[in-house]
Amino acid sequence: MDEDIFDSLFHLEDSYYNEGYRLGVEDGSRAGRIEGRVFGLEKGFEKFLEMGQLNGRACVWSARMPQHPATEQQSPEPDSLPSITDGTVATRSLSEESLRIPSFRPNSRLEKHICTLYALSEPESLSTENTEETVSDFDDRLKRALSKAKVIENIVKERESALEHGETNFNEQNGGKKREGVHITKAAAAEKNMEDFGLKRTPL
């Protein structure tokens, strides 16, 4: 028996529902992949930025440790003594001396913590592979590095990094003025959905 030509009219709702469901799954899958990749890039950038800050702080703290006698700067040779030109002696600028960061007192425990922090945050030893094992290892190292930085801060009696708060206070250096530092802000994406990627908005 031939199929009734009007049979499809009795199932319009079902056919439209199935077509809408299929299109929704396709669009949702595409938007979900885009959103997941963007979110992964954002989180990865934030984590590596924080690890880079910790590595930079470890380098600065290491430079502030007192030098060993063998590596201390030797006295200048007679030929390298300041030369006299037109009756003036070439001396080091006082402003450069005032900008020097004070060194720490000898402390073997502090030196050990700084070395550990540097080893945890060393860029060349960090993997950028997007696997479950490497991501878990990176998160563990970041957590340990943050804890180690807190220990060092308590030893040297310094407040938390200004970069962690998103601002740097230069009250003493700038006559009581406050200057904002470099920080990351999460701007609100008003009226913008992930489904709009690759699509141009048409004016109303």
TrEMBL record:
- Signal sequence region: none
Give the highest taxon in the source lineage. Eukaryota
- Residues of the region (Disordered) are 66-86
Spans of biased composition, class Polar residues?
70-86
Transmembrane residues, as ranges?
A: none
UniProt xrefs under PANTHER family: GEO13458P1, ORAL CANCER OVEREXPRESSED 1
Family stated for the protein in its record: Belongs to the LTO1 family.
The identity of this protein, by name, is DUF1715-domain-containing protein
